[in-house]
Amino acid sequence: MPRYLITIFHPDNYDPSTEDATMDHAIDVLNEAMVAQGIRVFVGGLHPARTARSLRPAGGGEVRVSDRSYLPTQEHIGGLWVIEAKDLAEAQEWGRKAVLACRTAVEVRQFH
Prior knowledge:
Blueprint: E1 3-11, H1 21-37, E2 40-45, E3 54-59, E4 62-66, E5 75-84, H2 88-102, E6 106-110
Antiparallel strand pairs: 1-5, 1-6, 2-5, 3-4
Helix pairs in contact: 1-2
């Protein structure tokens, strides 16, 4: 079955302490539904993008490390699910549920 990545986006200044019990419960219910359907492969949350380290080729076999995210954007990935779904439509339905549970934008992309 095809695998899909569902990514959750947060603004740079996102404060996880703003997540209330209702939101926590909605995310728990979504995770439980994914497990019950047998579609969840992996789930994980990420530390804020300001804690990221970006590694880039510097030439001559060297690697340059920067104390920042790779992309200079206003939003970054805050968490993700890897799921198995029969098609993009089914994966998008799980993405829709993630939007409602997490109260933020998500992206759904299929793995090669």
